[in-house]
Amino acid sequence: MVDYALIAMMILPILACVVLKVLFTPQSEGVAIAGALVFWKSTAELTPTTFYISESQVNTWAVMISILGLCLYLTHGLTTKAMCKRQLVAEWIVEKSEKLVKDNMGGFFAQWGPFITAIMALSAFSSLICLVGLFSPTGDVNVTFGWAILVFFLIMYFKFRGGFWKYFIGLFKPIPVFAPMNLIGEFATPVSMAFRHYGNILSGAVIAALIGSALTGLSNSLLGWLPGVFAQMPLLRVGLPAVLSVYFDVFSGVMQAFIFAMLTMLNIAGGVPWEDWNARRVKHNKPALTND
Amino acid sequence: MLELAMGIMLGLLGLGAGCAMIAGIGPGIGEGNAVAKACEAIGRQPECKSDVTSTMIMGCAIAETTGLYGLIVAILLIFVAPGTFTGILKEAIK
Lengths: 292, 94
Description:
The complex is a heterodimer.
Chain A: H1 2-24, E1 38-41, E2 52-54, H2 55-74, H3 85-105, H4 113-128, H5 141-159, H6 164-170, H7 179-222, H8 240-270, H9 274-283
Antiparallel strand pairs in A: 1-2
Helix pairs in contact in A: 1-2, 2-4, 3-4, 4-8, 5-7, 5-8, 7-8
Chain B: H1 2-20, H2 25-44, H3 49-63, H4 65-93
């Protein structure tokens, strides 16, 4: 009984998003390449800009509820004796994520597995949601920028562990002329992470739309002599877009999720100043930390 | 007058978007080199295949960044810039 409720929790938000999209999509001729639909716009004049609730936000919420349902479904009714497939899948996911985090970030960050897995799952399912015809939230630069800013704050938190003054001095190395470049390099990390994810997903969506419109035009000109309703049907659009979707939607989406999580791990673990941090800890009579 | 200005503007925006995508050459060459070296490495040490492949895909994704910047500039020029510049042109001609 609980299982069916959890499966409904996985599927219903996506269906609700499809219904919302059908209700809000304006009538248009041909294939339009447009951004996210805006469901609601605040009437009050907020500064500096108007407040929107757009398709990307609503789809992200739906994906979050679905992933929560999936997690509850996988971990529902765990036992130590009788193994079922569901429990084995859940254990496989946990083991893989812990191993990935430990291999890439070191032993100190071993408890960061859930965070990294959450980022990866949200990113992957947000990209895969376009398989049911919805707008991918990751094709909106605001969403990926939000995640990148979150990661940027984490990177900065761990870089400041060695003391703010040490970090500030480090910007002027090896010679003081490099200071502006080092500063730009600090801010380039989140920008490049956000643009990489957004650009890959958006380019896939744009190419899919272009190929769809091209095949519609081709079938209208080639198969226009067919009788009755067949003349209006874009018959050539059957098949080929699905093959391309395997690369542009499935492979590219999952790949970018993995790369986003990988760069998160490498940037957080690579920026920790261990020697300075341990020097500070010893000064404050705390035990020194190691990363292995 | 406005039509002529709009036509010139849209044509130049299209040209600019095309020029921005010249940035795709660099990642193409770079990723080709990376994959060639990865193939050599796998040929030399077939037991490291999974490590080499994951590292290569990671590197390819990072090398792709410059090309994606060009793509984003092109997309901005095609989809966002016409709306902005049309308003500016109408203001200027009026």
